[in-house]
């Protein structure tokens, strides 16, 4: 696991734990977040993302562990004295207040002079492109505009750390894509250390410097997006990041430079063994292979790594098609091909041969 970060730590979590009665919400998480880093917490619903953010913000008290910001232990510091900006899953704006007052709230709590408040609020309004909306009530804004107000309210206090808990989850697909770009820009302009929560892996891959994958309160892997995608640390991460085919448990065979998987009831796949495949001959492994590394065989194609099945479904996605193939001994396997021709050449129910590029597979020891 890669738990190191490139810059000096802006936030350090030391064995942070949260129990709710007998249930464990977050289990002993240790993590260093670099100055100016955009770090994403990614994981399924209930894995502890909001609980971890809540402890950093100070709304939740850890059962055990320590939270350090800029070298200072803030575990027992009250939330409003932590210099942490937060946008909640539900925005949590004041609906009866106008945009200006919502954004000014944190500064008024901090008892800043009125003139300074006006300057700071105007700066945040400009940064979030909300000019002209100052007097509008929040209840009269669109989802995207509310989102901007929530972000403006979080950055106006010039926080040391910005916490974002699924800030885009309520937005439709297009607006969400647009706000992702704006979040990136905001991060670039402010250089704010940001901890972003999502359960959308595409969003995590596109926005983050590093991603923390969580499951059941535990950190599964901490890595840069490309590293996470290419070398997932375990089956959970492999299955959670991007589309992937999980092959059944297979026997690993090694003869010189060649490695092979013997898949019971399905056949044999082989490849020139990549250097990091250091498994012992005869052990049981699981292979994970992305749909772009499985392709339909050309007509009449012969050779190793070709297995046969029957087309079960096509999922047309514009630039490409994901085709699901029912294969004996393997179950459903997905292949990803450019365009939509496959829908005509291999209709549902037709036989199809697939070529597996085993050398691209992620191999993990079967437990
Ligand atoms: N106040 C609470 N009392 C009891 N259990 C809680 C409480 N808050 C959270 N939990 C439990 O702790 C676990 C983690 O919850 P958390 O809200 O952190 O998940 P999450 O990763 O943010 O999920 P989501 O993606 O759905 O927002 C869940 O099992 C949840 O039921
Ligand atoms: Mg949550």
From TrEMBL:
Belongs to the ABC transporter superfamily. Spermidine/putrescine importer (TC 3.A.1.11.1) family. The keyword Signal does not apply. It catalyses: ATP + H2O + polyamine-[polyamine-binding protein]Side 1 = ADP + phosphate + polyamineSide 2 + [polyamine-binding protein]Side 1. SMART domains: AAA. PROSITE patterns: ABC_TRANSPORTER_1, ABC_TRANSPORTER_2. Keywords: ATP-binding, Cell membrane, Membrane, Nucleotide-binding, Translocase, Transport. Residues 11-241 form the ABC transporter domain. The complex is composed of two ATP-binding proteins (PotA), two transmembrane proteins (PotB and PotC) and a solute-binding protein (PotD). This is Spermidine/putrescine import ATP-binding protein PotA. It is an enzyme of class 7 (translocase). It comes from Ancylobacter polymorphus. Its EC number is 7.6.2.11. The keyword Acyltransferase does not apply. GO terms for molecular function: ATP binding. Part of the ABC transporter complex PotABCD involved in spermidine/putrescine import. Responsible for energy coupling to the transport system.
